[in-house]
Amino acid sequence: MSDQAVLRIQALRHSYEDGAAVLELDQLSLAAGDQLAVLGPSGCGKSTLLHTMAGLLRPSSGNVEVCGQALNQLDAGARDRFRGQHIGIIFQRLHLIPALNVIQNLALAQRLARTRIDLAHCRTILAQLGLEAFANASPQVLSQGQAQRVAVARALVHRPALLLADEPTSSLDDDNAARTIGLIQAHARACNAALVVVTHDQRLRGSFPRELHLRPSA
Ligand SMILES: Nc1ncnc2c1ncn2[C@@H]1O[C@H](COP(=O)(O)OP(=O)(O)OP(=O)(O)O)[C@@H](O)[C@H]1O
């Protein structure tokens, strides 16, 4: 493959309906295994950026490519399928499905990625995250930290090229924040995924090899 970039952004700009630009980013490129923290105060456009990287939001202008595919060239259905296959997302609200047990939540991510349902791989990831005893448990009986680890497992179970995490530590105490971020970084590394964490959590400063500091647009 000639294109090594997992994520490439060029001349990105977004404004919501009222017109003022909330996000401007000239250029960003991440290769497999790169790890980036996007930092900045509330309202500076971090979630907007994450949503454009995930293809959940179509930017006003500019180009976002994941694994060489320009997201704006895909219609909504194709974008959803592409996201399911190539991108893993750890949302701030975890969005685990309460009607499914833990391993079924992971298997669903494989199904959405259109990969083979591989329960052995699901169990391996759960074991790596210290969750093997909870495979058949409902997400509703998990502690916040356990549920967060399940969300990490679910985001990784289809071996995404790009892993995105939205404020993964904001509701955690210092110990759990450090543990969670270490876990996300280690597992992204093990999968050779490119990792982007967006956060206003100043405790994460200096924890990533690359940092992007967003400032609120004027
Ligand atoms: N759907 C929307 N419609 C209009 N304006 C929006 C919308 N979503 C976000 N904004 C505005 O865009 C700006 C950037 O919002 P965004 O959520 O990306 O910031 P953020 O850095 O993630 O903030 P926080 O750290 O508080 O989550 C803010 O001024 C916000 O009010």
Descriptive notes:
By secondary structure, this protein is an alpha/beta fold. The protein has a single domain (32-58, 76-213), classed as P-loop containing nucleotide triphosphate hydrolases (Rossmann fold, 3-Layer(aba) Sandwich), CATH 3.40.50. The protein has helices at 46-53, 76-86, 102-112, 119-128, 144-156, 174-190, and strands spanning 5-15, 21-31, 35-39, 61-66, 69-70, 87-90, 162-166, 194-199, 210-213. Strand 1 and strand 2 (21-31) form a beta hairpin. Helix 3 (102-112) packs parallel to helix 5 and helix 5 (144-156) runs parallel beside helix 6. The chain starts with a strand and ends in a 5-residue tail after the last strand. The site of adenosine-5'-triphosphate (ATP) has 11 residues, from helix 1. Adenosine-5'-triphosphate is lined by residues 16, 22, 40, 42-48, 200. Residues 7-214 form the ABC transporter domain.
